[in-house]
Structures are given as structure tokens and as C-alpha cells.
Amino acid sequence: MSNQQTAAVIEPEADFLTEEMDAGPPTDDHPMALLLEEFDDSYVNQPQTGDIRHGVVVDKRAGELLIDIGYKSEGIVTGREVDRLEGEFREMTIGDEVPVYVMREDRDGNLLLSISRARAESDWKHAEELLESQDMFTGSVSGFNRGGVIVKIGQVRGFVPASQLSSESQSQQLTEGEPDNRWMKLMDAELRMKVIDLDRRRNRLILSERVAIREWRREQKEKLLKTLEEKTVCEGVVSSLADFGAFVNLGGADGLIHLSELSWGRINHPKEVVSIGEKIKVMVLNVDRERKRIGLSLRRLLPEPWETVPDRYEVGQIVRGLVTKLVHFGAFARLEGDTIEGLIHISELTERRIGHPSEVVSEGQEIDLRIIRIDTDKRRMGLSLKQVAPEEDSVEFDWEPVPLEENQAGAQDAQAPAAGAAAPGQQAEFDVQAQAESDDETVSEQAEPSQEPEAVKALA
Fold this sequence. Notes:
The chain is built from twelve helices and 20 strands. It is an alpha+beta fold. It folds into four domains: 52-119, CATH 2.40.50.140; 134-214, CATH 2.40.50.140; 228-301, CATH 2.40.50.140; 305-459, CATH 2.40.50.140. A hairpin with a 4-residue loop joins strand 9 and strand 10. It is rod-shaped and about 125 Å long.
């Protein structure tokens, strides 16, 4: 047989052997491949110290839990870890899923686990997310010391220094007693906070209520500015007082009640009408969305006093009044128990000639007065001190003020300084109008002299 024939016979057999060798035994059934796969899975799933796994309770014994975390053997939660669970251990049952922290293997090869550490790790991670996102959260005060209060994020203790508490919380501190108990009133209080500093290595977590409240109010103000409409009525809490008005918290945003909008009467300070912390209803006067300001009014929700004056007062009535202001041409007095103010012209203070009302009355003095004129349209009331107790033999008159001839020149001269001495706002307008009206009456009497005897004119 030639070499070529021999090669032709061998080659097919070689090809068959090659194919058979290439195919080999099925991989799934090869014991070495199964062993290698099992080894790889075991190596990949092998828990490392510091890992957090989700396990299932497979057995519960006295002071011990067996947890299946998908490893070759169950892990054990025992000893001090069980004590930290306290009441939760009694409530746990077989089949419950719990997060566990891988600690180490003991001498017997048992894998030791910790549920409390796993929760703490999760809480620290949550705190880090809050610091990064700067999201606000709500927590309860669980402790305090002289420097501030303690608020937990899960099991992690966060500290809120006193400087980072809001003004409302700071107002709750005790000024008497032990310094360590100064924040006792805040115990169990719910606070809105943000994470401002975190150092995991030093176990340091600093929180701020002040920053959170400031941002929350800014967000609430944006919402209010979009939804508030003029003439609507809102409920709020008086948050602070200033010489020019009162600020009212409408639910995160503050609006201002100007001093002139607190009362229909004249007041010197907002504390005469409202107090901090008081709940009140207010009317929205204006909303400035560009400057982010809200104007409010308290008096617009109260009845306008002049509308009911005709029902409560009449000409000739004796009333009690408080002298509120002295001007060159007379004195203003507020009626007792009311916001109505009337003018006592200088000619109605006394029968004798005087140069200034201070010669007869003083601010803050309470006196009896007679109503001699009511003009509800112009919101004016004329009062008289000298006509409170007229002499019995005097003739009957209509209680209209008639300046004495000797005081006419003084009343006319008072017109120029009266405007300069008037108070700002509505009172200034009242003063000037009253002076002008008084001068008109004087000029009228000069044009048409009275035919009555001098005694009658003096009594008038």
C-alpha cells in the first residue's frame, strides 16, 4: 500500500479523534467544573468585615438569633447585641428579614453579626445623603445639655448647638435654675432641621434648626406670594414687634401690620394692641411679589368707630376723656373706653384768657367733658371743658363753641404754628382741619356780630 493510500485511511480517523477530543465530556457534568463554580460562588459571596447584608431569622434561642445571609453557615447575633435590641428581640419571629452588619468570625468559625451596627451604618449613610442634598427633615429632641439639644437620625445622635436653634426655640429656655436644665422645655419637641456638618471618624453630627427654618420660611413665602390675594382674611401669630408695626407669621412667611393699621385710634406702640405669640385674624392689604412684602391690617376687620357714633353719643352729653395731645389751638382727648378723639378748642378750656392749653390741662390727664358738636362725615367731635357745669342762671344755648373776643386774635395767630405742631398721618390732617374750621367760625362772627348781651357770649 502506498504512502498516499495510508494517509487517506488515517486522516478520517484522525479527524474523528480530533472532533471527539474537542467535544470532550459535557461541561455541566464535569466534576471539576462543578467544584470550580462552587468555589467561585463561595469566594464571591464570602462576607467581609464591615459588610451590611440582609438576612432572615431562621432560629431564635434564649439570648441568641441565627441569621441566614446566604453564606455556607448561618451568622449569630448574641450577647450584647441582643441586649441592645431590648424589646425588639421579643417581637422578632422566625422568617423576619433584618439588616445585619458583619463583624468577624469567632474561634469556632461562627460568623458574628450585629443588627444595631447595621442600622447605625444605614443611619450614617442617610445623614451623609442629607448633608449632600441639604434636604430638611423633622426630628424629636431626645436629650439636652447646657450647650444645646440632641436629636437622633435613627440611632445616630445629632447635636443642635444653642446658636443653631430658632428664635422661637430659644425663647423656651429657662433663665432660672441649673444651667444644664435650660433647654428642658424642648424635650420631646419636634424640630425642623438640616445637617450642616458630619465627621464619621469623630462620630460628629451637627444639625441646625435656624438654617432649616430660614429656608422653610423662604419657601413658604414664595408659595404665599403666589396664592395670596388682596382683601382676603388670614389667621396668623404675632412673631415680633417694632416701633413702626407688628409682624405676623402667616404660616412660614411674615406680613407687616403698620402702626396705622393696628387700630382706628391713635397708638404709640404696637404693644398697646397686640402681643408676641397672640393669634389674630388679619386682612391682606397688598402683596408686593417683586419686593416679597405682604401688607396686613387688623383695624379693617373691626367696626369703624365713627359709624356707630350717632348711636352712642349725642350733643350735650357729659363724657370722660383722656388728654392725648396739646397743640397751640387746643387739646385732643380720647373718650374713655373708645378710640374716638375730639378737639377741645382753646376757647373751650376756660373762661379766662390763656396763651397755651398747657396752662389748664396736661397730656395723660383724665377730665370730664361735654360734647358740643358731632360731625360724622368729617369724623370730628367738638368737646368743651368749661361747659361741663354751666351756671344755673345762664341762658339756654346749643352747645356750639364761640371763642371769646379777647381770644379771637390768639386763635387766628394759632393757625400758622398749628400745622407745624400737628402729629403725622391722620392726626395731622385732623388738627389742621379743626384749626381752619375754628378760624372760619371766628371770621364769621366778626362779619355778623351777635346782638346778645356780653354775659351770654361769655357763657357760650
